[in-house]
Write a structure and sequence with these properties.
By secondary structure, the chain is an alpha+beta fold. The protein has a single domain, classed as Endonuclease/exonuclease/phosphatase (Deoxyribonuclease I, Chain A, 4-Layer Sandwich), CATH 3.60.10.10. Helices cover 23% and strands 32% of the residues. It contains six helices and 15 strands. Strands 2, 3, 4, 5, 6, 14 and 15 form a seven-stranded mixed sheet that branches. Strands 7-8-9-10-13-11 form a six-stranded mixed sheet. β5 and β6 form a beta hairpin. α3 packs parallel to α4. The longest helix is centred in the middle third of the chain and has 17 residues. It comes from Streptomyces mauvecolor.
């Protein structure tokens, strides 16, 4: 499903009242096992202020890999990676990092360790809590992680916050529904671009998303297919997921 023009997503800006428009990208990068140059080109073309990464490198020389991705994407490392078991946050120099915290979640034997990467970022007079996540493939564990996500978001104690992640759940799933009941689902609120986030040619599913708390105005959210500077060959080569890009208006604190 396509909604609107891929060229009409608002750009990053600061409004006269102190509110800001920030562009938030959520992207599962499959541990940078694919074409890293293509991945960086996609990220740069989205011109994000914040990137919520999933499946960041977690093992040998993971910090070096994270630094490489940040550098080639013209961003800076904020938090996460191995310390959050995969989720990571990058930002532009527009953001001032106030605090960060990486959280490891309770682990079910036989399943992957999961975690959250979190940060509080300031853009002028506006402050934004950020949480990047990659939830379990197993339904019961995933639902528990969804509840922990909402608790961790509340613990940030921020009136305005955003969550970007690979939820391993579709909008009709109970974990996705739990989050959509408590937060704004970016695509459902203001659809823009392409809906489905699975790799081109795979069965159509929306399992990656950007959520925002009430008070954050969603100006548009979706997969930036066809955005100037993003080639389909790069989307195919970069990783096995498609990115989700959202433009959000965050009030001044």
């Amino acid at each position: 499903m396509e909604r609107g023009s891929v060229q009409d997503l608002p750009q990053s800006t600061t409004e006269p009242d102190g509110s800001v428009v920030v562009r938030v990208l959520s992207y599962n990068i499959r541990s940078m096992r694919d074409d890293v140059a293509a991945l960086a080109r996609v990220i740069r073309a989205c011109r994000p202020d914040v990137v919520c990464v999933q499946e960041a490198p977690r093992f040998f020389r993971w910090r070096k890999a994270a630094a490489r991705l940040a550098r080639t994407s013209e961003l800076v490392y904020v938090s996460g990676g191995a310390t959050a078991s995969g989720p990571m946050i990058l930002s532009s120099l527009r953001a001032h990092v106030e605090r960060t915290e990486d959280v490891l979640l309770p682990r079910t034997p036989g399943l992957h360790q999961r975690g959250f990467s979190t940060a509080v970022l300031r853009f002028g007079r506006a402050r934004l809590g950020v949480l990047s996540c990659h939830l379990s493939v197993e339904d019961e564990e995933r639902y528990g992680q969804g509840r922990l996500l909402l608790e961790r978001l509340a613990a940030l104690d921020m009136p305005y916050a955003v969550v970007g992640g690979d939820f391993n759940d579709r909008p009709d799933g109970r974990t996705f529904g739990l989050l959509a009941d408590a937060l704004q689902d970016g695509w459902a609120t203001k659809p823009w671009g392409r809906e489905h986030t699975t790799r081109l040619g795979d069965p159509l599913q929306r399992i990656d998303a950007v959520f925002a708390t009430e008070g954050v105005e969603v100006l548009g959210c979706g997969v930036p297919m066809g955005l100037p500077g993003i080639a389909e060959r790069d989307l195919r080569a970069a990783t096995d997921h498609l990115p989700v890009l959202a433009a959000l208006r965050v009030p001044a604190a």
